[in-house]
Write a structure and sequence with these properties.
With about 140 residues, this protein is of the alpha+beta class. The protein has a single domain (about 5-130), classed as 2-Layer Sandwich (Alpha-Beta Plaits), CATH 3.30.70. It has seven helices and four strands.
Amino acid sequence: MAAQQTLILVKPDGVARGLVGEVLARIERKGLRIEALEMRTLERTVAEEHYAEHTDKPFFGELVDFITGGPLVAMCVSGDDAIAGMRTLMGATNPIEATPGSIRGDFATLIGENIVHGSDSPESAHRELGLFFPGRF
């Protein structure tokens, strides 16, 4: 097992539904550590850079509008195999496919509003943490 850091977001739908505490509790119960935590409304330029891989997709504008449409909670989560551990804890991107007991399986109803985001690789984690916590990780 390798110690890793990953970016985790509780998206605006999760914040609006009062699920921040639930997400934090699940992360801590998993044995992972929260290294940094910040609530803010994301700037459009950061959102566009964060989702740059989707620029040419038809849902890009809606995705950026959604993630900038209200406060979110950004955090750096660390621990042994944190990326894979968090991806399992979050569940499949499509809530219909997400395993019961996962965050998305228990709380999400729409693929576009699925409560949480997590980095999908060490490279993505490094890039995303740099966007959300410049100069800290």
